[in-house]
UniProtKB/TrEMBL annotation:
Organism listed in the record: Bradyrhizobium guangzhouense
GO molecular function: DNA binding
One Pfam family here: TetR_N
Keywords: DNA-binding, Transcription, Transcription regulation
PANTHER family: TRANSCRIPTIONAL REGULATORY PROTEIN (PTHR47506:SF10)
Signal peptide positions on this chain: none
DNA-binding region: 43-62
Biased composition (Basic and acidic residues): 1-10
InterPro entries: DNA-bd_HTH_TetR-type_CS, Homeodomain-like_sf, HTH_TetR, Tet_transcr_reg_TetR-rel_C_sf, TetR_C
Protein name according to UniProt: TetR/AcrR family transcriptional regulator
Region annotation Disordered: where it falls in the sequence: 1-21
Length: 206
């Protein structure tokens, strides 16, 4: 039985000492390896190589691997949330915004990114049962995503693009189940016909 990941928070950088690397670039490297291999299967050597840092530099900025993972998780959800919000913003009404979000998930579930996987889904599967810190982070992020979708559906109610009988909260929960499922299917390298899948999903808003 695997041991639970140690719980820790990212270590604050000591004041007065300039950082010798770009944190976002380093964390993007950590995200790639964590998405591909998961938390437990990622060694410190693989992590430092992906971050293009010496082990000493990593430990100056973070306490341990778990702290790197927390920082990588936060970086990942910030970037993906911004991508999703930009996709939604291109829609002219609530219905179009929901469609754009679904299309964005399909896009990110294919190709190299799709095969790499999603750190939120990976954390839910690998760590939520054994790591209370990550369980809280995953739960909070899924709730945030769900609330965002529910808000778009309510915008559709207000602008007339989505019928009032479509329940915003229940439908948003189902959409989140679908979007996270897309990431699992993409990780498994199964083909995704985005246009057809989104078309079927949009029937939920009819």
């Amino acid at each position: 039985m695997q041991k639970a990941a140690r719980k820790s928070e990212p270590s604050a950088h000591l004041p007065g000492r300039p950082r010798e690397f770009d944190m976002d670039t380093a964390l993007d490297g950590a995200i790639r390896v964590f998405c591909e291999r998961g938390y437990h299967a990622t060694s410190i050597g693989e992590l430092t190589a992906a971050m293009r840092l010496a082990t000493g530099s990593v430990y100056k900025a973070f306490r341990d691997k778990h702290a790197v993972f927390l920082a990588a998780f936060e970086r990942y959800v910030a970037v993906r949330s911004e991508q999703t919000r930009r996709a939604a913003a291109r829609g002219a009404n609530g219905r179009e915004r929901v469609r754009n979000v679904l299309e964005s998930y399909v896009e990110h579930s294919q190709g190299a990114e799709g095969r790499r996987g999603c750190i939120v889904v990976g954390s839910a599967v690998e760590l939520s049962a054994v790591d209370p810190v990550m369980r809280a982070r995953v739960t909070a992020q899924l709730k945030t995503n769900e609330s965002f979708i529910a808000g778009l559906i309510r915008e559709g109610h207000a602008d007339g693009s989505i019928p009032d009988q479509v329940d915003a909260d229940d439908t948003a929960r189902l959409v989140i189940c679908m979007t996270q499922g897309l990431r699992v299917v993409g990780k498994a390298r199964l083909p995704l016909d985005g246009e057809r899948l989104v078309g079927v999903a949009m029937k939920l808003l009819a």
